Amino acid sequence: MDARGPKAPGGDALRDAAENLFQELQEHFQALTATLNLRMEEMGNRIEDLQKNVNDLMVQAGIENSNKEQTVRSSLGN
């Protein structure tokens, strides 16, 4: 005898539907996770490109070492 008691009519169908729904949700979640990871990587690349462009502009403007100079001045207490 089954410890869970007698099976309700349609119980297997309901369980199968729940398992299928869970599987679909899991697949959608994995796809969403992959998409988000890709977009975050793309955003990181864009930020790196932006930083490079800002640094290039600073070099052109003659203020290329301002961040390094500020760091050195701060550490020296100036």
TrEMBL record:
Database matches in Pfam families: HSBP1
GO CC entries: cytosol; nucleus
Top-level taxon in the UniProt lineage: Eukaryota
UniProt keyword terms in alphabetical order: Coiled coil
Coiled-coil segments: 15-60
One GO process term, biological-process aspect: cellular heat acclimation
UniProt cross-references to InterPro entries, sorted A to Z: HS1-bd (IPR009643)
Keyword Coiled coil: yes
Database matches in Gene3D superfamilies: 1.20.5.430
A GO MF term: transcription corepressor activity
TM region(s), chain numbering: none
Similarity comment: family membership: Belongs to the HSBP1 family.
UniProt protein name: Heat shock factor-binding protein 1-like protein 1
Species assigned in the record: Neomonachus schauinslandi (Hawaiian monk seal)
